[in-house]
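Many introductory courses stop at the sequence. We go one step further.
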Amino acid sequence: MLLFFSQIVAIVSVLLLAFGYLKTEPRDISARLFFVIAFGIVCYLINGMSMAHVDPALRIDPGNWGVVLNLGINSIPGLFMLYCYYVFQDGARAPRWLIALLVVELVLDHLNYRSFRPSPFLSVQNDSTITQFLLGPVPDFIQLFFAAFAVYWTARGWRSDLVESRRFLRWVIVSVQGGLILMIVFLENYLLNSASPLYGHIQRVIVHVIAALTFVMVLSLLKFDYMTLGRVIRKVTPFVPNEHAEDALQSEVKRFNKVFREDKVYREHGLTIANLATKVDLPEYRLRALINKHLGYRNFNALLHEYRIEDASQMLADRTQRHLPVLTIALTVGYQSITPFNNAFRQMKGVTPTEFRKRALQESS
């Protein structure tokens, strides 16, 4: 009964979170991905209620819906990876090869499911080593790869993220959601067998953990105003009287412009937000807030790229510097190699540095 109650609590909580997120941001691709992930989690929970370790009085038979449950379950790692990418890569499009790999993984998992549950529409016979390999270890490895990639993308940009709430969200996703999905994928695909007596115990623990986490998240959203970090931030922020707040802000902006723009500190190799805070003589959290709230940047690397690329564009368009190699210009504005410079330049300008220089020099002549 406790397991059944936890499953119901988890399903209801997951659906509430998904519908709430989608209602708030109906056009946001991350909200839509979160909704589909929630559907996969519900499939996982419902499928768990059909396992042999569940009491027969509470056990359900998915019947023909087993195909849908299997598809939803196996889509979770890949969709979670895409969710982390869209949330933390600031609007960048996910690589097409990753989306294609997700489709391949789902097809292989579906064929594996059908190989043990023959269907008049699609069935596969496990009669060869190659087939067993393609339908077994390959999709399992892809799922593990997706889960690990999601955690990597989430943790990768933590230091350069200027949005405090999103920095906190990164830790929640890495330590809780990503860790849980990674653990489930690894346990169920590599360590446990559904016929093992230990499988039922692990399943119970997983269900209880999901129920507890999702229920706490729902309660947190209901009490969001009381759970913000505002009070914590105010404890460490020096008090500034209202009549002097604008003067203090203007002074901070002037110091930032002097160091970052006029002295061109953005050209420094390996510049971090902590290094810049020392040079501007501001606490790091105040500098983060200044760049995010008053300059409009969500990511420190985006700020560096914009200033460096604009600086490089001026050098490339300057006829007196046409003898300088592109690599020299890239190193001058702060890049440590040509590849990240080319990628950032193409993303911002739509052309390569060489093409940009050729057009700019032709126009000037």
